[in-house]
Amino acid sequence: MPRRMAGTAKGSSALTRISGATPSGSASSPMRASSRSGVDGRRLERRARRLEVGRRDDRPGDHVILTAAGSSTPLADLPSGPDPDGSLAFDTTQLEQGAYDVVLLDATDTERWRDTVVLIADGQQTALTVADPTLEGDQRLEIGWAFAPGNQFDWLAVFRAGVAAKGDPYLAWRYTDARIDGSLPIGPGARGPASWPMKPGRYEVRLCLDDSYRCRGSASFRVLG
């Protein structure tokens, strides 16, 4: 299986952690949250009627807003509070599935920090597709995915069709770069024991979670002789 590389933080941030949190005793949430570009590769946990934002070294007058991704119009605005460290929680129960920005502003509304999160409806399955299910010659496998968890070490792996994802049976692989949705090719020069083009036969590409063999979503393809 792929080996982890050390994560690199995107610089010092006054907002140090983003996570999902379910209030004690609450019902299962209709939404979960995942980080598109989280600090140091962190992601939002799969729970919550609330989007919880950890923070540190706040300044007087700092506040945190939640907006639609790319927008400057606040959907919610919370003061950071009297303590320089702590957390804030946004209610997500009325928000639709999609991308949102969490933005830290100072007392003059100057942006200090921003990150993007994606709210995904509870029960939404990871979708994995291939652009062409039949490969010929050295044609690359073009893979697309959506609604992935966005873990730092999620990876795409090619297996023979029907093979269990245990004991390093993968043939080729690459990381998703912690992206919740996107597309990437696997082809000549890919990591893994198989040469490219692969031998004729039927295969599957799977999205496996965080350097493990727990896979979520698959798409079939075949290689012609």
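[next item in queue]
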Amino acid sequence: MFLYQLFLNLSLRPGGTANEGEGKRPLILVSGLFGRMPQNLLERSVLLIRKAQYEDAEEIARVHISTWRSAYKGLVPDPYLNSLSLQEKKKHWQQILSENMGLSETLVALDEGARSVIGFVSVGPCQDKHPGRKGEIYALYLQDSRQKRGIGKKLFWQAAGSLERLGFSSMIVWVLKDNPARFFYEKMGGCFYAEKEEETGGKRLKELAYSWDSFAPSAVSGTQK
């Protein structure tokens, strides 16, 4: 399981919270523990973020596969990346989106004009054993062509708000140690929390966990994603 980059065991959990009105820009406000999304990010919003639906499974799968192949080339063995199947990944997401038990959420970012999925985020209970009510961002993926526009930050803030609404008091993410995307989470205020190794495609890979016990709006100032 990786964030914004690598998700090892492919066991994301479903759910969502949404801004679903057609033709409306999303109002993404996060309050309480995780703070409030800065107004400048709201003003730059050019997309819709809403709850993932069963019919989104194929487009989510396409983003999932394409971002793996671009982000992890040279990190994850090529044979493994090349073996990723759209049909298998589609079935995987169909199962996720049809089994929401209210403990997890999956959100999609849609292109304002084409209404196609350009990114997604999935959150829920922490998959490792940690004290307290700690949530986890299982995955946050965004098409390469849409990065550096602040969209990743919007998805991140929405994920934080989703976890707070689900009743979690803090959150973590796991990120591949050699993936530069980990610096995104540092810019977002994440503090080093733990380290472990997992195997993907026959290769042992180190992961770092970043944790947020509180979340201030000032943490989002920095490099766009």
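[queue empty]
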